[in-house]
Amino acid sequence: MSSGSGPQAGAGAALNAATLTDDQRLEQLGYRPQLTRVLGLFSNFSVAFTYLSPMVGIYSLFVLGLGMAGPSYIWLTLVPLIGMLFVALVFGELASHYPVAGALYNYGKFSVGAGYGWFVGWFYGVALLVTVASVDTGVVSYVTSLLHNWFGANINPSAHVTILIVTLVLVAIQTFMNITGTAVMARVARYGVYVEMMGTFGIAIILAINGFHHGLGYLFSSHGATHLKTNAYGFNFHGNWWTGAALIAVLAPVYIFYGYESAGDIAEETKEASRMIPRSMRLALIWGGIASLVLTGGLLLAIPAHTSNAQAVTGGIPLILAQLPQWLQDVLLLLIIYAFFSCGTSVQGAGSRLAFSYARDGALPASRWISKVSDRHSIPVNALLGGAGVTVLFVLLVFVSPKHNVSILWFTYPANTSALVSLVSFGVSGIYLSFLMTVIGSMIARARGWVPAGAFRLGRFGWTVSVIALAYLALMFINVVIPSGLSSPRSYFNIDWITLMVMVVIGLIGGIYYAIGRPDRKLGTHVHDALEPTGAERTMES
User: Which are the contacts of 27, defined by CB distance < 8 A and separation ≥ 6?
Assistant: First the structure.
């Protein structure tokens, strides 16, 4: 092994790294600066926070958490919040050392090697595209409700044509906003933060002023959710909350607390990226957690008195908000719609930077076209257009929905479940898989002697934090994907075998392209880090 690697070399590199500018560090990693650094801490945080979007998550998943475990499901929010804070610390250290667009893809590439990084980016990239489709289709019911209130229009939000039209309009606007420049994307995200604050803290305060119907003790009750007769979905947890209802209900907040890593996807457009990105990640999680707890608590306490768990779930959030004046409900609908819009805009922007980073390394088909940067706006326009096209193709899957149960090998594809819904289930499982691979990659690098050289370092707590992050991700990943039958409450999230099978199919598609196209051969020329060589380079040097 060369004398330039190892802990002592890494420690010296850390001193050198502190004196490098953003662009100098980028050039040291082998890249020519092409994107414009216009984002400060708040703008970078805004993109991460609006991707995480507590409003979108809670207004989408509130009834599932309430129905599975009752009002006390609110405290399960702390599980993914705390777990992801450890993951964010690991990511922050990586982002500080490798402040490069594409985040997880580059972390895996530099930590372990070309092939490993490619697969991390593959799972993460597909999950991002799926998330855009999920978020944009998720806003349809709110759009139709607002149109009904304003114009008396009776539009079926579940109609496939309605979903397609609303989504096409939304994708077009998001793509236009992103193409016009990073500053515009940041402005949309900053407004999104203000909307999130009004839609979480603001609504909780308004509900409190209007009058809560329960005391704080209500937040510590299962409200009968652990028993068959009183569970809103008819599930029998045999009176077990921690070992039954909570194991499933925790998936509701689990589906919210990610997206903060997108702060690293836009690293090459962020000033003082090595310092700012780790802070943005932590702030997005902390404020997302606080906002989630406040809004969830406010909604729960505002449930009308003498309402059963089943009635609360059936009525959902509209039942709670119906207590407010109609004009205020319309304002809230506008806030929700904008929250979905800004979330989708941020995710699309992050995905385009990942695609650009991939293509810049020659790791995708048509890499030269995808990696082209607009001279006018310094934006990877083609990456944005390509991503928008793929999102639309995903949305078309809503038309693929069998009328009857379909037997496939040893499992059943349930009737009236569109292919889009099945694909959307990968939005979380794919994220958790790529997160898990990234943390494992950082541990492999650390075991090989990697010493972080960015502005943010975990120091002697590096291994402890990494092990806790790994344990959390592994346990939640298993909880997300493990098949347990269509009659299981978990099937509300993973549709029995479907989520796992979708993951296998996406992995096979990536594996086939990898075997035929061998993108790792081109990536092999983009893994050199003057501060800390990768394991692949060490093998060649030894």
Answer: 33
Phi and psi at 407, nearest 5°, equal: -85, 125
* pLDDT value for 521: 86
| 253 exposure class (CB count in 10 Å sphere: 0-12, 13-18, 19+) | buried
Question: Residue 18: its pLDDT value, please?
Answer: 54
Among candidates 175, 195, 223, which has minimal Cα distance to 63? 223
Per-residue pLDDT, 506: 96
In angstroms, rounded to a whole number, what is the distance separating the alpha carbons of residues 178 and 175?
5
467's CB contacts (< 8 A; 6+ apart) are 443
Residue (of 297, 300, 298) closest to 309 by Cα position: 300
Residue 144 has pLDDT above 60, yes or no: yes
Per CATH, which fold does 7-541 belong to? Amino acid/polyamine transporter I (1.20.1740)
Q: Are 483 and 500 in contact (CB under 8 A)?
A: yes
Rounded Cα distance between 75 and 502, Å, is 31
Please check whether residue 429 is in contact with residue 435, taking contact to mean a CB–CB distance below 8 angstroms.
Answer: no
Among residues 146, 31, 29, 57, the alpha carbon closest in space to that of 347 is found at 57
* Phi and psi angles of residue 408, each rounded to the nearest 5 degrees, phi first: -125, 110
Query: What does the domain layout of the chain look like in residue ranges?
Result: 7-541
Tell me what the pLDDT averaged over the chain comes to: 91
Q: What is the mean pLDDT of residues 193-206?
A: 96
Asked whether the whole model's pTM tops 0.90, one would answer: yes
114-138 and 140-151 helices cross at what angle (nearest 10)? Answer: 20
List the structure tokens of 80.
């993914």
> Is 496 within 8 Å of 412 (Cβ atoms)?
yes
The whole-number average pLDDT for the span 140-155 is 94
Interacting residues of 440 by C-beta distance below 8 A, sequence separation 6+ = 470
Q: Kindly report, residue by residue over 27-42, the tens digit of the pLDDT.
A: 888 899 999 999 999 9
* pLDDT band of 377, cuts 50, 70, 90: confident
pLDDT of residue 539: 40
3-state secondary structure 86-104: HHHHHHHHHHHHCCCCCCH
Identify the pLDDT of residue 19. Answer: 63
Contact predicate 437/119, CB 8 Å: yes
Max CA distance (Å), the chain: 74
- In whole angstroms, give the CA distance from residue 42 to residue 34: 22
- Mean pLDDT in residue range 449-461: 93
* Residues 175-195, mean pLDDT to the nearest whole number: 94
